[in-house]
Write a structure and sequence with these properties.
Elements (H helix, E strand, L loop, with lengths): L8 H17 L9 H8 L3 H14 L2 E5 L5 E7 L1 H7 L5 H17 L28
Antiparallel strand pairs: 1-2
Helix pairs in contact: 1-2, 1-3, 1-4
Length: about 140
């Protein structure tokens, strides 16, 4: 079996993708952060961030603006799959987990009753604004 290269997804690419997703989703950066903003957000050295962003662009997880030399200058967007991988959007598994939690909560007992009145009590008389019932 040939020697495999060391894993870069969990140690480099995924942390950079998470940092990019946080910055793209944040209104502070206008949805298009510069590469210089991604470096401190990821906590990795600049050369590793550049290599990770190139890989993410090549695989379609990230869209980027480049200069004439081909260097990434700014991240302009992320794909739906990248949003699912980072947790911004739900995955089928997370939806099943959420549904299971809701079913377990309902099985535990009925929800507390509330009708919109003060203290959660039923009104004792008809409000003045309510129309009078018409006999049939």
């Amino acid at each position: 079996m040939p020697d495999l290269l060391p894993d870069s997804w969990f140690t480099r690419d995924l942390p950079v993708l998470r940092a990019v997703a946080r910055l793209v989703d944040s209104p502070a950066h206008g949805g298009a952060p510069y590469l210089g903003q991604v470096v401190p957000a990821s906590g990795l050295p600049r050369p590793q961030v550049v290599a990770a962003v190139r890989g993410l662009v090549d695989t379609g997880y990230v869209a980027a603006l480049t200069n004439v030399a081909g260097d990434v200058v700014r991240i302009t967007g992320i794909s739906g799959e990248a949003r699912r991988l980072t947790g911004l959007w739900p995955t089928p598994q997370s939806e099943w987990e959420r549904l299971g939690e809701q079913l377990a909560a309902r099985a535990a007992g009925p929800p507390p009753r509330w009708n919109g009145t003060a203290g959660g009590r039923w009104p004792t008389r008809r409000p003045r604004w309510a129309p009078t019932p018409v006999p049939c």
